[in-house]
């Protein structure tokens, strides 16, 4: 029975991990920007959900579209006015810029919200299947991760903006010649990444204590998941997240929680050596 | 022409700068003997920002109290007190560098250590090298104090004492208690508490059915909690920092672990823990170095009673002080007392006075042992009951009976 519980734990945890990584994967895969702001975006979404809930009493699930849209706006503006200035520079330049912006956002959050861990204490209970327990809030996170992945998949495949994003990623100059406003597409893509992070933050505010201390942890997880799952493929983040969740869950149970996170890093190193595209990544995006 | 102007400009700037520097040094030199300069590397950003802010806040309050009295009386004269603080961004290496800067550049008379045993250990080595007295108000691991340092003094008592009294107390309150699961964060203080509890439990005749550490940065405890559940303990003892413990308590409930005793060190000592956990906090026990319900009177220092400190703190910050605030304010009181006893701020004399300290502060008695740690304190065991924190032990300050979690 323990094995089934561990398996379920791993899948649910993995889906939450996927939630963290979807936006990061999109921005990295499409814009070739390693967005160091991503962890802070998630925490910002969480803080906004916490304070809005504390002030209004409204369930954060209903606040999710508003908060995620606000994050979209922030992401769009940051890309349009700052990151676009250096977007065609080597990846290290954009990495440094987003790192600097992250320090500003991180410290602003610490000053205004303090680093006190906060959680929306809206415990939704658990679903019991015999001896097995599944927390409802984590199941919601899992549902959201699946929904966001599906939504992003459809947007990238079927919508005009999705095709424009793919076109810009494939050949920036050709896309410009086709009349695509490249800077606008970049800003929208970065905005979508921030939207996903904000949505993840809202769900996380009900599951994890939100504190600025966690920004680096979220960013690190997103990074590992993208390497495991692979870039350039929307389901890559979902698969990478679930793979990492399962690995950590089984490793935590069998070889002890002290080593569980190390196993994730070891797997990342292994994949970088033998399969740089990740499990389902597209060649050329690594 | 342009070159010439630039050169002149440079010359003028250099002259002005030199003038300012000289004026500054003259000013400092004249004020030197009358000002006690305390250096404090603080974690104001990064992982320990919350704890660093608590130290900064309480020292601000303490300093206001001292300044309101016109300074401190030393050898018949008034001496002013000044804090020099730097943010070390929760980066241990940077903490060491800034401690060095405080000593060599700012020429501080004494160092106040930051939060946590790990960073205190780093800074203690620097202070020892320069022979500057250092007070640690939030470091309780014996490993910090067993390095033979002569200039290090800590106001917290050894954390091993806490675990032995806790095991005996819980056995007395719950005779059915047989099995304990210990789950600690792999970090200096939480690890030492988990190890101490496992040892105390074993020597106290309990069966330690689970004893594991989790890595710093762990975002999920479900695998460990599944293993704990299989071991079917009567008591779960978890250590970590507030965010770990909020998550741990929630996941224990999510996974259906219903033990009569859940201890989280030092979770309930912080208001943010009970706020973050909500109703699940009810019944959680912890041990702590201080609680504001303790009532010391006729104390030496800025506050003569615990109640006075509590009143001033709550008026200033609209929240209850925890042991971090109390211990750090008391450390400042101890320092002032040592300077007054020494009759000057001579580092060797202050160090000797600190070593001989045996006083009562609003925080409790302070008497440094041979290793520099505060000794002989009975530390309270607390429990969340409803929305309040109750003291269960020691009997002299207890205000409630222990309740088992249903």
UniProtKB/TrEMBL annotation, chain A:
Which cellular component appears as one GO term in the record? plasma membrane
Q: Which Pfam families match?
A: BPD_transp_2
The transmembrane residues are 6-30, 37-56, 62-83, 95-116, 136-155, 185-210, 222-247, 259-278
Q: Which domain of life is it from?
A: Bacteria
This protein's membrane topology, according to the annotation, is:
Multi-pass membrane protein
Entries under InterPro entries matching the protein: ABC_transp_permease, BCAA_transport_permease
Q: Where in the cell is it found?
A: Cell membrane
Q: Which GO terms describe its molecular function?
A: transmembrane transporter activity
Q: Do you know which CDD domains this protein is assigned to?
A: TM_PBP1_LivH_like
User: Which keywords does this chain's UniProt record carry?
Assistant: Amino-acid transport, Cell membrane, Membrane, Transmembrane, Transmembrane helix, Transport
Question: For this chain's UniProt record, which GO biological process terms are given?
Answer: amino acid transport
Q: Please give the PANTHER family that the UniProt record associates with this protein.
A: AMINO ACID ABC TRANSPORTER PERMEASE PROTEIN, BRANCHED-CHAIN AMINO ACID TRANSPORT SYSTEM PERMEASE PROTEIN LIVH
Which family, according to UniProt? Belongs to the binding-protein-dependent transport system permease family. LivHM subfamily.
List the protein's name.
Branched-chain amino acid ABC transporter permease
Q: Native species of this protein? A: Sneathiella litorea
Automatic annotation (TrEMBL), chain B:
Source species, domain of life: Bacteria
Q: Which UniProt keywords apply?
A: Amino-acid transport, Signal, Transport
Q: Which Gene3D superfamilies match?
A: 3.40.50.2300
One GO process term, biological-process aspect: amino acid transport
Signal sequence, renumbered to the chain: 1-31
InterPro entries from the UniProt entry: BCAA_transport, Leu-bd, Peripla_BP_I
Instruction: Tell me where in this chain the Leucine-binding protein domain is found.
Output: 38-385
Give the similarity note. Answer: Belongs to the leucine-binding protein family.
Q: What is this protein called?
A: ABC transporter substrate-binding protein
């Amino acid at each position: 029975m323990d094995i089934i519980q561990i398996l379920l734990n791993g899948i649910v945890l993995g889906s939450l991990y996927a939630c963290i990584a979807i936006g990061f994967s999109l921005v990295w895969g499409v814009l070739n920007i390693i967005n160091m702001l991503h962890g802070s975006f998630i925490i910002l979404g969480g803080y906004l959900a916490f304070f809005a809930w504390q002030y209004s009493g409204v369930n954060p699930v209903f606040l999710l579209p508003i908060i995620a849209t606000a994050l979209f706006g922030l992401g769009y503006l940051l890309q349009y006015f700052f990151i676009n200035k250096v977007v065609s520079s080597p990846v290290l330049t954009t990495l440094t810029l987003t790192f600097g912006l992250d320090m500003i956002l991180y410290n602003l959050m610490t000053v205004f919200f303090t680093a006190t861990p906060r959680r929306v204490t809206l415990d939704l209970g658990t679903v019991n299947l015999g001896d097995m327990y599944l927390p409802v809030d984590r199941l919601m996170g899992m549902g959201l991760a699946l929904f966001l992945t599906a939504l992003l998949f459809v947007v990238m495949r079927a919508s005009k903006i999705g095709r424009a994003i793919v076109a810009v990623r494939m050949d920036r100059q050709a896309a410009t010649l086709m009349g695509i406003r490249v800077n606008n597409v970049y800003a929208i893509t970065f905005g979508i990444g921030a939207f996903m992070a904000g949505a993840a933050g809202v769900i996380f505010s009900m599951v994890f204590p939100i504190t600025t201390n966690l920004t680096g942890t979220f960013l690190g997880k997103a990074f590992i998941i993208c390497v495991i799952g692979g870039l350039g493929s929307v389901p890559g983040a979902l698969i990478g997240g679930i793979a990492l969740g399962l690995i950590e869950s089984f490793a935590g149970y069998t070889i002890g929680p002290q080593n569980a996170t190390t196993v994730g890093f070891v797997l990342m190193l292994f994949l970088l050596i033998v399969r740089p595209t990740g499990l389902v990544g597209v060649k050329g995006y690594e | 022409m342009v070159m010439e102007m630039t050169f002149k400009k440079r010359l003028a700037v250099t002259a002005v700068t030199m003038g300012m520097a000289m004026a500054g040094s003259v000013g400092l030199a004249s004020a030197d003997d009358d000002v006690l300069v305390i250096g404090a590397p603080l974690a104001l950003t990064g992982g320990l920002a919350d704890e660093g802010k608590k130290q900064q806040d309480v020292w601000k309050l303490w300093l206001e109290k001292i300044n309101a009295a016109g300074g401190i009386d030393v050898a018949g004269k008034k001496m002013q007190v000044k804090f020099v603080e730097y943010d070390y961004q929760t980066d241990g290496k940077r903490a060491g560098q800034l401690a060095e800067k405080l000593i060599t550049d700012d020429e501080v008379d004494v160092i106040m250590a930051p939060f946590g045993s790990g960073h205190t250990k780093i800074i203690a080595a620097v202070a020892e090298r320069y022979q500057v007295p250092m007070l640690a108000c939030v470091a309780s691991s014996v490993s910090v104090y067993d390095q033979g340092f002569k200039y290090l003094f800590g106001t917290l008592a050894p954390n091993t004492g806490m675990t032995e009294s806790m095991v005996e107390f819980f056995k007395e309150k719950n005779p059915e208690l047989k099995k304990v699961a210990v789950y600690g964060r792999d970090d200096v203080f939480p690890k030492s508490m988990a190890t101490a509890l496992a040892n105390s439990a074993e020597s106290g005749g309990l069966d330690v059915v689970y004893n594991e550490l989790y890595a710093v940065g762990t975002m999920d405890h479900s695998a460990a909690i599944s293993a704990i559940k299989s071991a079917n303990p009567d008591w779960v003892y978890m250590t970590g920092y507030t965010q770990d413990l909020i998550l741990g308590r929630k996941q224990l409930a999510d996974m259906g672990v219903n033990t009569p005793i859940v201890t989280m060190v030092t979770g309930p000592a912080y208001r943010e823990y009970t706020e973050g956990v909500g109703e699940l906090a009810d019944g959680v026990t912890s041990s702590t170095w201080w609680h504001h319900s303790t009532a010391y009177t006729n104390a030496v220092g800025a506050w003569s009673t615990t109640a006075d400190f509590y009143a001033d703190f709550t008026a200033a910050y609209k929240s209850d002080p925890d042991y971090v605030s109390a211990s750090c304010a008391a450390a400042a009181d101890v320092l002032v007392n040592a300077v007054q006893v020494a009759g000057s701020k001579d580092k060797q004399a202050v160090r000797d006075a600190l070593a001989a300290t045996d006083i009562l502060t609003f925080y409790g008695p302070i008497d440094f042992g041979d290793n520099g740690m505060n000794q002989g304190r009975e530390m309270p065991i607390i429990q969340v009951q409803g929305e309040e924190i109750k003291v269960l032990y020691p009997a002299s300050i207890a205000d409630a009976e222990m309740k088992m979690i249903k």
